[in-house]
Amino acid sequence: MFLPEGMNVMDDTMRGRILSRPQDYAWIGDRFLKPPVRQVVLSFHGLGYSGMKDAPDTTDMELSASGALCVFPYYGPWSWMNDEAAVLVDTVLDAVFARFPLDPATPVISTGGSMGGLSALMYCCLSRHTIAACYANCPVCDLPFHATERPDLPRTMYAAFAHCACGVDEAMKLHSPLHQVERLPDIRYLIVHGDRDTSVNKAAHSDKLVALMRRQRLSVEYIEVPGMEHCSITDYGIYRRTLDFVKSFTL
Hints:
By secondary structure, this protein is of the alpha/beta class. The protein has helices at about 10-20, 60-65, 85-100, 115-125, 145-150, 155-160, 170-175, 205-215, 235-245, and strands spanning about 25-30, 40-45, 70-75, 110-115, 135, 190-195, 220-225.
């Protein structure tokens, strides 16, 4: 895993707790799974989520029926996939692979929307696990710009990165897909963004990232949705495409 100098790692006591009780650190959909496990699907939540998921949604149910072990990490309401979040998710994955147990070749798919979209993208290059594919809905791609995009955001950047020896500004760049595009692995990506998104501006985020990804010759499918607001996929054809993309990566 790439971690900037001065950032934290997990101590053995905390790692042991997560390995013994991963259900305290992530919702794991094994009860709804139709075996065998053919993939692990990580779903990263958006900014501010502080609850504990207690039931599958319709996406979880369809994925589970096709052999996906769905995992919803509790990686922090304001984490922005910082070093602590990446280490937590890695350890949850260690526990999942050991507990069930899973073939080491089982594909891991990284997904999420908004902050979760940034997290899905950044986890691909921060994780010590190999990620097979990534789907991001209305992702934050330019984190330094996003800190200026809305008045509710600067405090969340401080919460995520104030501990970093390099400083908050540099840490934001180190966790910004637009600034770290050269670190993104050569896997397949699906990005969806609507042109009526007032929370995460499409032109400032996904448009710029996709252009750079294509310049890097990464395999990225970009679905631009006229009239769509933030993370609100209402077109069934687009929703179907996102599910089919995730389900196409199986053991």
